[in-house]
Amino acid sequence: MRANIFILERCLYGGANMHDLVEFGIDELGKRDIQYGDFRLSEINTEVINVKNGTVEAIKSSESKGYGIRVIDGGWGFASSANLTEQGIQKTIKRARKIAKASSKASEPIELKDIDIHQDSYTTPYKKDPFKVDLEEKLDYLMDVDEWMDIDEKIKVRKCNFNAWKTKKFFASTEGARIEQDLIKTGGGLSVNVSDGEDTQTRSYPNSFGGDFNSRGYEFFENLEILENAEETAQEGVDLLDAEQCPEGEMDIILNTNQLALQIHESCGHPTELDRALGTEASYAGTSFMTPDKLNDLRYGSNIVNIVSDPTAEGGLGTFGYDDEGVKARKVDLIKDGMFVGYQTSREGAAKVGSEISGSMRADGWKNLPLVRMTNINLEPGDWSKKEIIEETDKGIIFDGIKSWSIDDKRLNFQFGTEAGYLVEDGEVTELIKNPTYTGITYEFWRNCDAIAGKDEWVLHGVPNCGKGEPPQTMQVGHGCAPSRFRDIRVGVGKW
Amino acid sequence: MVGSEQDFETISEKLEKEAKADEIEVRITKSDTALTRYANSQIHQNIGQEDLDVSIRAVFGNKTGAASTNSLELDSLKKCLSTAEKIAKYQEGDPDFKGLPEPKEQQSVKENYVKNTAKFTPDQRAQKVKEIIEMARDEGIDRVYGAFKTESQSLFVANSNGVKKFSRFTSSNLTTTAIADWDDDQGFGWGESCSADVRDIDHIDVGRTAIEKGLNNLDTEKIELGEYDVVLEPLAVQSILMYMDMMGFSAKKVQEERSFMKGKFGEQIMDERVNIYDDISDPEMIGYPFDYEGVPKRRVDIIKNGVANEVVYDSYTAGREEDKESTGHALPMPNPMSPLAMNLLMDTGNYSQEEMIEETNKGILVTRFNYCRPVHPVKGILTGLTRDGTWLIEDGEIKHPLNNLRFTQNLIEAFNNIEGIGEKRKLFAMGFYPAYFAAPALKISDFNFTGTTEF
After folding, report:
1. Which pLDDT value is given to residue A9?
2. What is the rounded CA–CA span in Å between residue B132 and residue B34?
3. Engineering a disulfide at A294: which of A138, A298, A378, B16 sits with its beta carbon 3.0 to 4.6 angstroms away?
4. Inter-chain CB proximity B375 and A472 less than 8 Å
5. Once rounded to an integer, what is the mean pLDDT over residues A193-219?
6. Does CATH number 3.30.450.20 belong to domain A5-148+159-236?
């Protein structure tokens, strides 16, 4: 017999509000004889506008609502569902417990680090709600950007985009936590693909893979100056076709902030995730060379290298009030004066190694299990200026715009390529070069960092596509940094 | 959870009646994923997820808008439809968009839905994992890692032109990494198995493969960088196929001059023994028999006897060329990545892996690659590292394990340098998107290693 839409309507979403559902869920969990339980309910709205070659490639609005339940009942169990009825919640709790019982076949006792229990709320500070700005206004802006990129027939693909995310999130635990958060994120960018029939190049602004993103409102997108940079970026894409190939050899390199953000992400962010260091990602994303025995003992970088995990950083894409275990956002040192001093942790991991807790557990949406994820992993500013760094470089390359990135599963050997490079000779920028690549070993590379620009040139970039976990989860993270120099690095890898 | 074909039909009929747009498409996906992860010989993550997504494309002339929701509440569905229609109306129109697909006859493809997989319990997964852990302990290995996943997915697509399709499939995948410890040294090994039917997963074989590799991978040595003959096991070949797919096998990439296939059609670009094709009808393949626009998937012979033959299309990219039809390879639209081959296979040859090794004077045996990324997509240059078992081959024998190596290699050149193709192929799930590739082992000469790491 064919189901009726109105029956479906009554089956699901009986009209209960989110607070009531959270209270119901945590009450039900509290009635079970379990070591621990938490209930996380989220409603996520997204808006994507992609313009390509003067037409709209995609405008999509989406909403998703559901909840995830974690329990410790002999072992870990997690179940999630979009069935927002009391019956659905009870069924999902039952599933989580059944899974936990199965885990107990091969699980050691689980201990969670004690934390302060909060009843609180947090809202991203913003000026303009990106979802309330007229679609027409955003579209008109992107169409203008597209026109400004349309300067040469060698430009085969012009792309620009706007993205916004709004998340309403409730967290409750059997320990008494009740946390409500409203998070808003916004961003966008542009790119061109150019071809002369022989070679193809790409150039983007303000960063590759969709631009730049922050935990701010529409004002962040407005201030990105995408339109103002459209023509120049497009022209540089065309210029790359005739640029010289990146030279091979060892020389000093200067990383602009968009590329340095990725360098931090891959070579410091991931290896200081405690779950990786303890092996829990060994079969998928990999492990880490920064194992607990090296804590406070490994010289990771030069004395001027200071890297922190900071979910309190204003506007960071990894900024929030509380993580998905109810831990209040806090700044934690990872690298201090070049020494490895801290991890990004979960409550379970911190209890295992007796470390400080960083508040780094986050899940991709309601459906997934929280994992240790980067928040804003920031390189603290130094006391140089980029101008001074260039002036004091005899021979080097400035790398700009992420293009290719690869690193081994312990995060030691890496190889990165950027969209553009600029040769520096005798303290001056002399020439645009194409297909620039550099490679190294993480700790050797950071030990060769001898100049970091200061606060005035420090930028907090957003990386919206960090992948980790099984099933795969995508996380939004931030990386703050200023242009920096690294001595004697191998560049120009491979045969061209 | 609500989610039968009839439920979905009811929803789409209701939405079609409500719609003001010239054309609408209703796409509903439903999934139930269960996954048991283990690390350090303990189950540390164990999950069950269920979700449902309703996506609507509304079309006015050549303007399209899209919206999605995971709510089946009538108000939410109506709001979703009205948002898609509002978005469509704002646009100026895309002259290349020729409308939603018309119904097309479906070739008969067996449904890959296996009840035993869909009903596999957490207890059953945990028991298999426990047996792997115990087997490893018996061999002196206290650290095994991996994941055992079982899932069922269903897809319903209907549009106002009369397309109405429903299909479902199941998938199961088991991976094991074994880390053998000896003094301060560690040996890494890998095993994997994938099938629509969980009863085909031989967990003992997966575990044993990983354990043997781990034990044989202790005391690794560094090797001078340069070009070597390589014997790539099927999982390493699958990584290469995945990046070839992303860099070159889509009509969009060709149209935008971003594919290494551009301008090469009809030319011999690889060894003549190379046949790479997308074919959901192959008995070992997993997936839906139609794409996310409801267009039946047809076999696409992408590389035929080494010749660049054809690429995959969705309805949009087909509409941009004369006399082209969608091959049934659309992703959920709108989607900048569409179209994409999701069921790639490479033809087998007549070499066993043992014969490939025996015929190698000096070379490297690779279990799998890690973190591959295109360096220059149009030139087909890829970089990545070996992982979970790399060995030096000398005089036809495996000599000793090697530290992991970084390659930076033109893949088209590599597939021109093929010396042997394995007689068997293996199916793998892609992980980040619901695609399944089947690859044989390959022996390739002059593979360029450009870096090494410390383990």
Report:
1. 38
2. 19
3. A298
4. no
5. 96
6. no
